[in-house]
Amino acid sequence: MSGRHHLFIPGPSNLPDRVLRAMDRPTIDHRGPTFRALTFEMQRRLRWVFGCAGPVITYPASGSGAWEAAMVNTLSPGDKVLMCETGQFATLWHDIAGRLGLEAELIAGDWRHGADAEAIGAQLQADTGHTIKAVCVVHNETSTGCTSDIAAVRRAMDAAGHPALLMVDTISSLGSLPYRADDWGVDVTIAGSQKGLMLPPGLSFNAVSPKALAASETAKLPKSYWAWQPMIALNEKGFFPYTPATNTLYGVIEALKMMEEEGLDAIFARHARHAAATRAAAAAWGLELQCADPAQASDVLTTLRVPEGHSADALRATALERFDLSLGNGLGRLADKVFRIGHLGDLNDLSLMSAISGVEMSLGLVGIPHRKGGVLAAMDVLAGAPEAMAERGAA
Amino acid sequence: MSGRHHLFIPGPSNLPDRVLRAMDRPTIDHRGPTFRALTFEMQRRLRWVFGCAGPVITYPASGSGAWEAAMVNTLSPGDKVLMCETGQFATLWHDIAGRLGLEAELIAGDWRHGADAEAIGAQLQADTGHTIKAVCVVHNETSTGCTSDIAAVRRAMDAAGHPALLMVDTISSLGSLPYRADDWGVDVTIAGSQKGLMLPPGLSFNAVSPKALAASETAKLPKSYWAWQPMIALNEKGFFPYTPATNTLYGVIEALKMMEEEGLDAIFARHARHAAATRAAAAAWGLELQCADPAQASDVLTTLRVPEGHSADALRATALERFDLSLGNGLGRLADKVFRIGHLGDLNDLSLMSAISGVEMSLGLVGIPHRKGGVLAAMDVLAGAPEAMAERGAA
Amino acid sequence: MSGRHHLFIPGPSNLPDRVLRAMDRPTIDHRGPTFRALTFEMQRRLRWVFGCAGPVITYPASGSGAWEAAMVNTLSPGDKVLMCETGQFATLWHDIAGRLGLEAELIAGDWRHGADAEAIGAQLQADTGHTIKAVCVVHNETSTGCTSDIAAVRRAMDAAGHPALLMVDTISSLGSLPYRADDWGVDVTIAGSQKGLMLPPGLSFNAVSPKALAASETAKLPKSYWAWQPMIALNEKGFFPYTPATNTLYGVIEALKMMEEEGLDAIFARHARHAAATRAAAAAWGLELQCADPAQASDVLTTLRVPEGHSADALRATALERFDLSLGNGLGRLADKVFRIGHLGDLNDLSLMSAISGVEMSLGLVGIPHRKGGVLAAMDVLAGAPEAMAERGAA
Amino acid sequence: MSGRHHLFIPGPSNLPDRVLRAMDRPTIDHRGPTFRALTFEMQRRLRWVFGCAGPVITYPASGSGAWEAAMVNTLSPGDKVLMCETGQFATLWHDIAGRLGLEAELIAGDWRHGADAEAIGAQLQADTGHTIKAVCVVHNETSTGCTSDIAAVRRAMDAAGHPALLMVDTISSLGSLPYRADDWGVDVTIAGSQKGLMLPPGLSFNAVSPKALAASETAKLPKSYWAWQPMIALNEKGFFPYTPATNTLYGVIEALKMMEEEGLDAIFARHARHAAATRAAAAAWGLELQCADPAQASDVLTTLRVPEGHSADALRATALERFDLSLGNGLGRLADKVFRIGHLGDLNDLSLMSAISGVEMSLGLVGIPHRKGGVLAAMDVLAGAPEAMAERGAA
C-alpha cells in the first residue's frame, strides 16, 4: 500500500520522527558518565510531567508490569484493595491483584461511566477498621473512553478520613489529560510510554509519594524485579539496578523536550479540540458514545457503539483494508459492539480528519446506518477559533 | 506544532520512510565493488521506469540541470529549437535555451492547455530546411496542471517527416503518469528525483535514445559536467566520472523497488483516483481549474483558480499557519491567482482527505466564496469501487 | 569528541545500523494482522537461535526479569534451588531466589572458574529426597569471563538420576557461544536482547521445555506479569497479553535475519577468533586473566586483572577520556581489580584492534606495568588463516 | 560481514550519525518560511567555515561542477588560465577548462609537490599584457597528499602586481586544513560536501569575492545552471532558483553545528595528529610517501608508495576482502603504484588505529616488504600529550 499507515488506536500512539530519530543511536555504557547525565535529565523531566516531587521509577516493562509493581511494593499477602469496574482495564487490574494474593474488591460498574467517588467514599466510611489498604482507580478507561475524577476520589477519601493509599492508572491519560500527582494526593501513579508520552511501548512508570514509600518498608509481597528501594537508591546515583532500556530512554528525553516546547496546557487543549471534533462527527453520524456521561467523555479516545445487529469489527476490517486505517477494537464484553478512535499523542487537525473521513467512508462501505457529514461537523469544530477551544480544553 | 506536516505541493513529494531509511546509511567507496553492483542495479531499474533500453544518465543536479544537459549534449550554438508555452516551466526551459546560445522558438500558449501537437506539426512541415533541431515539450506542466500528449507530438513529427530530436520534460510526471520513452520515440527524457520517484531533490536524469547519442557526437555547445560520453563509458563499468551522490542513489534503488512492488499500472491508477477525487472537491467548491481541457487535466496535481479579487497566497498562508498544510503557489503570471494541490508520489486516500479538508477549512477561514462539501464529493470518489477507478486510471 | 564511540563493554553490545533502522519505524497496532505475522516470524527465528522446539517467551524486561520469570513460573515458596557461585551474576541470581522466597543453595566458587559439574552431581546424588527442584547455572559469567559446560552439567544431573529442572542463564552467551537448549536438556533458558543478539536492552526471554511447562501447572509462587500460560496462549494466536515492545520486536527480526545470513557457526568462529586475539594481547602485555582455566575462557569477553596496587578504574577512565573507549568495570568483589573487554555481537577484526590499541595506550598513560606489543600479538592471530580460526572456534 | 565497514578513502569521508539522522527527515516546501530560515542559517554557517564575508553558492552538484561554475561565471571564451600540475585533480581541472573553450596553461609538476608559488609568480610577471585571467590552484591534491601554500601563491600574485583572479580548489581541504578565503585573497573557493564537511556527496560550493562577482558581470561563457547572479539574488530572499537538495541541506547545518562545537582549531589539530600518526606508521613500515616535501605533506590523507614490482591494488583488495577496509587507489599515472589512507572528517584515534592495523596486516598478507610495528609508531604519536599535538597541528 502506498503512503503512510493511519494509526488511530488509543495507543500505542503515533511516534514523532524526532523521537524515533533520538532512539536511532548507538547504545552506550549504562555505567558511564554520559548515562548518568541522561538519568538525571530523565528523572527531572518525568517529575515535571507527573506533577510530582518524589521519585519516578522507570521499568523496562509494559503498563501491566507497573500495576504489579505498585502493588507488590506497598501491600502484603491478603491485603484488601478497593477498585471500580470502569471497564476492561480496571477489570484486568483487579485480576492481577487476585493473582498476587490480594483481596480485591470491585465496585460494580456499567462500563459507561468513570469511577464513582461517592461509592468509594461510602465503602471507606464503612471500613472503620481500615482493612482497605489501597484504592485503585483508572484515570482514563481506554476500553470505554470514560474518565474518572481523581480529585473527587481524593476528596472522598479525605472526607472518610481513611488512610488507604490512592493508586491511579494513568497509562492512557498521562500527557494527554491534565494530571497532578502531588496536588491530587496520589500515592502511586502508574503510567506507560506508548500513549500520551509519544514513545514506543516497552517502558512503564511508578511515581511514588512519601506515604507509598513508607508503606514499601513493611510490605510483604515477594518482589525483586519490581522492588522500588534498589531502583531509587541507584537512580539517585544516575544508574539502574539492571540494564535499562537505554535506547527508549533516549526517546523519553526527546519526547519530554517536545512536550515542554509545546507546553502541557497547549497539549491538553489540543486533545480537547480533537475530542470535541470527534464527538461532533459521532453526533452527526448518529452513533452513540459508549461513555454515557458527557462530563466524563475522554479527550484521549472516543468509543463509538455500532447499532445492534452490526459488527464493529467488520467496520474496522474495512477501514484497514480499504484505507490503511487502524481503529481500536472493542475489548472484553464490548467486543464487536464498539470501535475506538484514538486521538492522543502526536496529532494534528488534518491527521484527525484522515481518521474521521476514513470512518465515514467505511461506515458507508460496510452498511452501518448513519447520516453523512461527520466530516463537516468535525471541520466546524476544528475551523473554530483555536483560542476558544484552547480555553475549553484547559478548563 | 504537533503531528506531521502535510506536504501537498506538487513536488518535492512525500518521502516514504523506507526511502529515508535506505539513505540513512554510511557512504561507501564509489570506486569499490559494492558500489559497482549498486550502479548496475540502479541502471536496470531506471530503464524500467523510463520505458527505455538505452542509457539513463544520473546527475547530482536539479531538474533544470538535466534540461541544460539535454541541450548541451545534442545541440550546437545557434541551433533552433521549438518549444510550447504551456506554462512557467516551459517558459523557464525556453529561457535556458536562450542563455545557452540556442535560437529558441516558443509557440505561444494560454497556460491553460498542454502542448498543441497540431501547431508543432505545422511548424515542422513549414521547416522544409530542417533548421529546427529539437522539439521540446513538457509532459506535465507543474505550474498549470495540464498534461501534453507526447504520443500525439511524436505522430505529428512523424507526419511531418521531420528529423528533429524530441525532448520531453517528465520532471513532474515520471512515475506518476504513464510514460514510455522508447514506445513514443522520445530522444531525451528529462526527469528529476523529487516527484513521482519519491526521492529527495538533488538528482536528475537524461534517458537517451540512440539518435540523441549520435547527435551528441557532433554537438558543439561547450560541456564538461553534463557530457554524456564519459558518463556512459564509466557507468558501463559501474562507476561515475565524478563522485556521485551515493546516499541518494541508495534511495533511488529503494524507491524503485517500492514502485516495482506496487506496480506501475497500480501507481498510475492511484494517481488517477486521487486526481479524480480532488477535481470532484474543486467542482463541489465551485472553484475553476486552471486546466481548461478536462482531457488534459493532470493526475499529478490540480491547479485551482481563486475568484477574482481574492488571494490564493492568503489561502495558502492560512492553510500553513492553521493546519500545517503546504500547498503549491502560483508561479509567474499565475502568482496569487491559483493554488496547487499536489497528489503525487507516496500518498493514499486518507492523506489526500487531510489536504482536501484543510483546503475546505482554509477557504472558509480566509473568506473565499465557495460551497461546502468538497470533502464529501472527494469521499464519494474514494469510496467508489477501487477496481473501476483503477481501470479509469490505467485507461 | 569526533568520530564514533568505541563500545567494548560486555554488553550492551554494538547495534548494527540495520537493526537500528529496522526499529526506526512507526509502531503498529499490536492487535492487527501485520503484527500477527511479525509474532509468528519472530517466534520461528527465536526457536532457531535457542535451539529449541518449544515456546520462547519474550518479555519487555531486563535479563533479571527473565531470571525471576523462570523461577516464579516453575517453583513454589520454600522450594530448594541449587546454584554455583561463578561470579557476580550467579550471586545476583541467588539473591533474587532468596527475595522470592526460595531456599537457594550456592556452591561456593572462586570467581575464576565456571560451574563445577561434579560438585553439582554430588549434591544431587546426596539429595535422595529430591528436595532440590532446580539447578541454575550461568552459561557465560559476564563478571569473570568464565564459561560453564552446560552439557556436562546435564550429564551430571542425568548420572544422578535427579528430576530437578535445569535453568541456564545465557544472557551474555546466546548468539555468541554455541548453545543448544533441547540437545542439552535445558528446561528454562534465560536470555536477553542486548548481547549476542545485537539489540538494545529492554527484552528478555524464557525458552521453555515441556518439563518446565508441566512444572508451571503446579508452581505456587505468585505471578501475573511473568506468567507463561497466558503468554503462550496468546502468542499462539500471534498476540501478547499486554502491549509488547513493538519497535524492539522489529529489531529482533532484523537481527536474527542478519545472524541467519552470517550463519551461527561463522558467528561462533568469529567470536572465537576475536577472543583468541584478545587473549594473545593480554599475554603479550603480561596481564593475568581472571579466568583461571584456559579451557573455560570465554569467547564473549575477556576479564583482565591489573597488578596489585593498580587501579583498573583509573585505566578505564583514561581509556574513556582520551580515546572514547568504554571498557567493562570490575563487579562486586572484583571492583577496580579487573577490567573487561567485550568482543561480542556486531564486531570485526579492525574494530577489535581499536579496542586493543586503546587498551595498550591507556596502560601506558596510566602507568600500569606491562610489555608493549599486545597489538602485534593480536594482529598475528587476526592475520592468521581465517579458516583455521574458524575451525578452532567451532571446535 | 559482521561489524562496521572501515572507510578510509580520502573522501567521501565517514558521516556522523548526527548528520545522517538530520537528513533523515521529510522534505519540506522549498518556498516556505521554514525553508527560508534554513537558507539563512546555512549561509551564515558556510561563510564561517570558508572564512569569507561574501556569498557562498551551494549547488546540487559534485565538486567538478563547482570547478565548472567558477570558470563559466568569471571567464569568456578563449580566456587564458594558469594552472599547476600538482596531480590528478589539477589535471582534470585543466581538462575541464579546455573543454569549456579556455586556453589553459599547465605548469608542469612531478605529482610529488604542491603548487610552485615562485613559478606562478614568474609566469605572471612575464604576462605583462595581463592575458592570464585566472590562477587556479588545488589546495590539497587528493591524488598525492601534497598541499599547496595558498597564502604564498597570493603573495606571488601580489608581488607580480597581476590582476588575475585566484581560484582555489578546497574540495578535500575545507574543514580539515586551515583555510581563510578572505584573508588569503581568494576570489573563488571551490568546495564539496563529502570530505571535511562530513556530508554525503552531492553538494558543491563557490565562495565568491567581490572581485569575482564583478568579473561575472562581463564573463561571456554560456551558463544557466551555474549562473551566480540568480542564485545570489534568490538566496538573499532565502530561496533558490531551482529545487535545492533540501535533505542534504539539513545535513549541512548539522555538520557545521558539530564543527562549531568542536572548534575549527581543534579540528585542524586533530587532523594534524592523525596525519602525524599515519606518517609515523609509514616511516616505521619503511614505505615512501608520495609527497616528497615533508612541509607539504597533507593532514587530510597520506599517499604511500609500494615498492617497485608490487601492486598497491592487490594490497587494497586484501584489505577490503579480509578486513572490510576501503583504502584509496592510485589515480591516473599513480594507478597501482600508491595507496591512500584518508584521515579526514569524523574520525578519532582508535578508528585511525583500525586503519593502520588493517594496512599492516594486509601488507603482510600480500607480501609487500615492510617492517612490522607501524601500529606501535602510530600509538606513540597518539598517546603523546594531546596539547602538544594540538599546538603542532595549529601551527
Short description:
Chain A is an alpha/beta fold and 395 residues long. Chain A has 14 helices and 13 strands.
**CATH fold category name of the largest domain in chain A:** Aspartate Aminotransferase, domain 2
Largest sheet, spatial ordering of strands of chain A = 2-10-9-8-5-3-4
User: How far from one another are the termini of chain A?
Assistant: 41 Å
How many domains in all of chain A? 2
Specify the CATH architecture of the largest domain in chain A: 3-Layer(aba) Sandwich
List the secondary-structure elements of chain A in sequence, H or E: EHHEHEHEHEEEHEEEHHHHEHEEHHH
By secondary-structure content and strand pairing, the structural class of chain A works out as alpha/beta
State the major sheet of chain A: 7 strands, mixed
Largest interface: A-C, 57 and 58 residues
Computed Rg of chain A: 21 Å
Give the CATH H-level superfamily of the largest domain in chain A. Answer: Type I PLP-dependent aspartate aminotransferase-like (Major domain)
Quaternary state of this entry equals: homotetramer
For this entry, give a set of tags.
homotetramer, 395 residues, alpha/beta, Aspartate Aminotransferase, domain 2, Aspartate Aminotransferase, domain 1, 2 domains, seven-stranded mixed β-sheet, four-stranded mixed β-sheet, 14 helices, 13 strands, 44% helix, 15% strand, globular, disordered C terminus
